[in-house]
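[job 0412] stage=fold_complex status=start
inputs:
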Amino acid sequence: MTDFSIILAGFGGQGILSAGKMAAEAALYEGKEVSWFPSYGPEMRGGTANCSVVISDEPIGSPVVNDADVVICLNQPSMEKFEPCIKPGGILIIDSSLIHIKPTRTDIKFIPMNASEIASELGNMAFATISMLGCLSAATGCFKRESFESALYEVLPERRHKLIPGNVAAFDKGAKFAE
Amino acid sequence: MANKKVLMKGNEVIAEAALRAGCRNYFGYPITPQTEVMHYMAKKMVQIGGNFVQAESEVSAINMVYGAAAAGARVMTSSSSPGISLKQEGISYIAGAELPAVCVNIVRAGPGLGGILPSQGDYWQATKGGGHGDYRNLVIAPASVQELYELTVEAFNLADKYRMLVMILGDGTLGQMMEPVLFRDEEPIEKIEKPWAAVGRGGREKHNTVTSIYIDPDDLEAKNHELQDKYKYIEENEVRYEAYGLEDAEIVITAFSTCSRICKNVIKQAAEQGIKVGMIRPITLWPFPKDIIRETAARDNVKAFLDVELSAGQMVEDVELAVSGKKPVHFYGRMGGNLPTQKEILDKIIAIHNNPNEGGRG
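[job 0412] stage=fold_complex status=done
writing structure:
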């Protein structure tokens, strides 16, 4: 796998940057090369946030993603902005609880999933992005479920380990949408 | 057991590297996109008993650096472009007084207050002086988070060795991105005696004085000759670069730091279209790797150069000097905080491939 690229985008506060970091951590756990690059413009508070993650078996060239294999969107402005940035044959995953439009492109795979409803049912809105990581993992294999879980145990401080089963449950619910 | 790679932000890695290199003095003033260097220092310096000061301005911070360096301490400051402009007076004084220090510039787009997104528009300022007088800074341009770590540690060794300011020139991309970094168990710290340090008489006959003022023109000229001799030695001994694909390249890219990474991907794409592209990536921007560029320009297989920068074209002038008219030099740059896309660079390569002698500079 060379330079598999993901863009995650949504509102600031939805956990976009953290989810991107977790995807990178999971791939790093598998021994992959990874990079994570955030939007750090003045628009962050209350506005849109996005980050690019690249996963590769080789040293990564550019951390900046123009043509993504997968775009994950949690709001409509992000979808409008990043739909054109998907490679032909790539995947667009959206939170259909929050986005009510359809993509205009027909050369991509479209996976709408009610991520915010899943998160709400699980009692933690931060799980929305995590469920979408589950879908990403299942749809592409860019990192494994086990790596995601193991990476959480490594990255989170011990006092937060009690949150991990919930994260994994959200991840598994999201994975079903890839089927 | 070998250490494990950890995922860290470029800015934080710079600070961690400085601490590992024995830097116990940091003075700075916050500015995007390098503020995480300060955050990290603020947190860690307290824990290890070092000195951290958020100064009232960049001017103040660089003069604190002067003071700590004059006392023989390993010291660092960091900022981004407008803040580095404010530090230039102090940087010139540090050069004049021959003090070792490390200064990090995580460049943002200018001129003026500009924007906060990545740029390489401070190349001239970093490599051609920046402040007043005939002086140089040793300028290092890492291209990855791992290199930020290794070269920041090295910067402290070089600063002590040559008694001069070493500048780490990054940009917003490098500072803000996360990549895995593998830390060493032990850092290759070169302990260099500093008998010149202003630390009291300590049994010596005379106290040390650290100054950059020489009122007598002959004294000042002699001092300048000393500095120039030092710079010449550095030009002969400290040039670093990465080069690849030069043996059969038809087009050679020159690019540093973030731009070189984007170009690396483009080189693979060009190869898929049957166009052989090589690259020379300067790691030291001063001293500039002019010899390898000169030698490459003389190669029969090389038809043209393409310099790619996040600026209107600054390093390209040094490339042109080295190429010395032997081959056409083309340029592609983006400004304002925008990065070139791989497609933009690939299109430029295809155009040069089709007609290497058209569309170049001059």
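[job 0412] summary: Helices of chain A lie at 16-29, 76-82, 115-122, 127-140, 145-155, 164-175.
[job 0412] exit 0
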